[in-house]
Design a protein that fits this description.
The chain is mainly α. The chain contains 17 helices and no strands. The protein has one domain. α2 packs across α14, α3 packs across α12 and α4 packs antiparallel against α9. Belongs to the SLC35F solute transporter family.
């Protein structure tokens, strides 16, 4: 019988909970965006602008306080800022041309893109069990989508083909952004990543707003009802962006995208308990499927654990054979090495020995 204790660890549980926290934040941004849309405010780039400003200010101050050098080239962060801004813009823009169902389905394109990019660029290895977990998660989401398909929804949208192409482009950019962030988090620094992403994201957003959304912002009648969802959206996005690098460093971009699939399920929970709406039973089956998929994917491979354990045992055995597990023996070896180095240095610096070079 499989020893689940060796596979499901405290780290696994933390990763799952963190993923669901991020999923809830995305759900919150979705409902706040819908509230803004109900009030006639359609300015997706402007909504993201404040989030980028908060990131630049908060993490920029931390960078200045630490006084550490930049670990990655600044122009890579410029490219990441452009990709991130345009990914958010394209997916929101697609709703003007195609149906909600199409957007939800095609947005899943980010998952195979992340698998491909991490395998090709980051050399991430995926065991069959993890691929099975991915398939179960996607199957659960498809259940939700098809339970919502109606004839009216299928025919909605002024230009479905154009909208579908825009969603695919946005999902691909999401994958590029997530994989790039995973790379920077693991090779550079989280604070540096967030500071520069906020800085260049704010610059790109500001330029785009001045070109595309000036008239929209002028037409908004600002009040508490309009400002609160706007600010709430920015704060939720700020928290989301702040915790995404943590999950990326712990579990990678694939786990992040799989965890975010449950945002549609949490939206159903809010519809039930906040708006008192009735939903189809298939939602609960789908939620269970996604949950199982996440458990299958995030569980630690027993093969990896055995390899790590063998490495530890081999290291201990080597110490025992060489006497390094004995403190007295270890001190004697270190003392001997120090004496040998001193004698070698003295021999090299004896009078009459000439050094080459300047």
């Amino acid at each position: 019988m499989m020893n689940m204790k060796g596979i499901w660890t405290k780290q696994t549980l933390i990763n799952l909970l963190l993923g669901q926290f991020l999923s809830l934040l995305i759900t919150a941004t979705g409902f706040l965006s819908s509230e803004l849309a109900r009030k006639g405010i359609n300015a997706p780039t402007s909504q993201s602008f404040l989030n980028y400003v908060l990131l630049a200010l908060f993490y920029g101050v931390l960078m200045i306080y630490r006084q550490e050098g930049i670990k990655a080239k600044w122009y890579f962060y410029v490219l990441l800022g452009i990709v991130d801004v345009e990914a958010n813009f394209l997916v929101v823009k697609a709703y003007q041309y195609t149906s909600l169902t199409s957007v939800m389905l095609l947005d899943c394109w980010a998952i195979p893109c992340v698998l491909l990019f991490t395998w090709f660029f980051l050399k991430t290895k995926y065991r069959p069990r993890k691929l099975v977990g991915v398939a179960i998660c996607i199957a659960g989401l498809v259940l939700v989508i098809f339970s919502d398909v109606h004839a009216a929804d299928r025919s909605s949208g002024s230009n479905p083909i154009k909208g579908d192409i825009i969603v695919i482009a946005g999902a691909t950019l999401y994958a590029v952004s997530n994989v790039s962030e995973e790379f920077f988090v693991k090779s550079a620094d989280m604070v540096e990543l967030m500071a520069f992403l906020g800085l260049f994201g704010a610059i790109v957003s500001g330029c785009q707003i001045s070109i595309l959304e000036r008239n929209e912002l002028r037409s908004i009648h600002w009040s508490a009802g309009a400002a609160l969802p706007f600010v709430g959206f920015s704060l939720a996005m700020f928290l989301f962006y702040s915790f995404v690098p943590v999950l990326l460093k712990r579990s990678g971009a694939t786990m992040l995208n799989l965890a975010l699939l449950t945002s549609d399920m949490w939206a159903v929970v809010i519809r039930i308990f906040v708006y008192h709406q009735k939903v189809d039973w298939i939602y609960f089956v789908a939620f269970a499927a996604v949950a199982v998929g996440l458990l299958v994917y995030s569980g630690r491979d027993k093969v990896d654990k055995n390899v790590a354990d063998e490495g530890i045992v081999r290291s201990k055995r080597f110490d025992e054979e060489t006497g390094l597990d004995n403190p007295a023996r270890k001190d004697a070896i270190e003392s001997s090495r120090t004496e040998e180095n001193r004698q070698s240095f003295d021999a090299e610096t004896e009078p009459g020995i000439q050094f080459q070079g300047r």
